[in-house]
């Protein structure tokens, strides 16, 4: 599987958050992005959880080299027409989306 990998320490501090969020925004549904950090990305996790991006799922783990990896996956938006039931069974498809 092809995955974009960003080594966060190479980004200039004042542009880090903006660049990372623009990369997340540009992800196609079902695609992922991996951030490599030299320390646990606690602050970024906080910003991400407060952002309201409900279709982004992430996991953080320490790798064998001692760096931290944050994997982000863009899932279909719950309000997207692509999500939920197709209506074939007679169910109300709008209720399947929340």
Question: Helix and strand layout, with pairings?
Answer:
Blueprint: E1 4-7, H1 16-26, E2 32-37, H2 42-50, E3 56-62, E4 68-74, H3 93-96
Parallel strand pairs: 1-2
Antiparallel strand pairs: 2-4, 3-4
Main beta sheet:
4 strands, mixed
Overall 3D geometry? globular
Low-confidence stretches: none
Per DSSP E runs of 2 or more residues, the count of β-strands stands at 4
Structural category:
alpha+beta
Mean pLDDT: 83
Radius of gyration: 16 Å
Residue fraction in strands? 15-25%
Q: Can you give a write-up of this model?
A:
The structure is a single chain. The chain is an alpha+beta fold. Helix content is 24%, strand content 24%. The chain has three helices and four strands; from the N terminus they run βαβαββα. Strands 1-2-4-3 form a four-stranded mixed sheet, with no helix packed on it. The protein is globular and about 40 Å long. The two termini are 31 Å apart. The relative contact order is 0.18.
Task: Provide a brief overview of the structure.
By secondary structure, this protein is an alpha+beta fold. The chain has three helices and four strands; from the N terminus they run E-H-E-H-E-E-H.
């Amino acid at each position: 599987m092809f995955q974009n990998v960003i080594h966060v320490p190479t980004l200039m501090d004042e542009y880090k958050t903006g660049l990372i969020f623009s990369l997340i925004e540009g992800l196609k549904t079902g695609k992922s992005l991996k951030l490599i950090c030299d320390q646990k990305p606690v602050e970024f996790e906080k910003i991400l959880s407060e952002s309201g991006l409900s279709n982004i799922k992430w996991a953080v783990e320490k790798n064998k080299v001692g760096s931290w990896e944050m994997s982000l996956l863009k899932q279909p938006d719950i309000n997207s027409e692509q999500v939920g039931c197709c209506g074939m069974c007679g169910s109300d498809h709008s209720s399947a989306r929340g």
